[in-house]
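Friendly challenge for the regulars: who can give me the structure tokens for this chain first? No prize, just bragging rights.
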Amino acid sequence: MLFRLFLLFTLIPLAELWLLLWFSSLTSPTVTFGLVVVTGILGAWLARKQGAQAWKKIQMNLVQGQQPTGVVLDGLMILIAGAFLITPGIMTDMLGFALLIPPVRELLKVHIGEWLRKKAMLQVQSHASFHSSHAGFQDFGSTQSTVKEEDIIDVEFVRKESSETD
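First reply, four minutes later:
Bragging rights claimed.
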């Protein structure tokens, strides 16, 4: 994990710097600087606008008694997009703008939902004391319901009172 973080925080900035220098050699340093500033301002504005819309959807879902799972994931991806867009660079800008496109986020939600299901099932399999359903993961973009009656567990806990003779 530490090695991956090292690569993330060293190779990506180096690649970004190389791309900016390359783009600057094709155009001019002024155009490159302008590109970085404009994408930062435009990205921050778009992320703020879409983030406010996601926040309203979350509140509306909560008022209606629905789980805002998918909308929360949208908000998280919009937040990440904003961070990418205010970071100077060409690759991060492309990723940031891609995350601001709703169909791209929907596709990512499906993949994230599948990844979370697999992680949850692996976690459950490692703890053989209970069986898990997929409840709570339906809103991640999956169109099919995977919860079956045999997947639901009804559990009752009874607290045993201790007596003075114990």
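The radius of gyration is 23 Å. DSSP finds five helices and no strands in the chain. Your move, everyone else.
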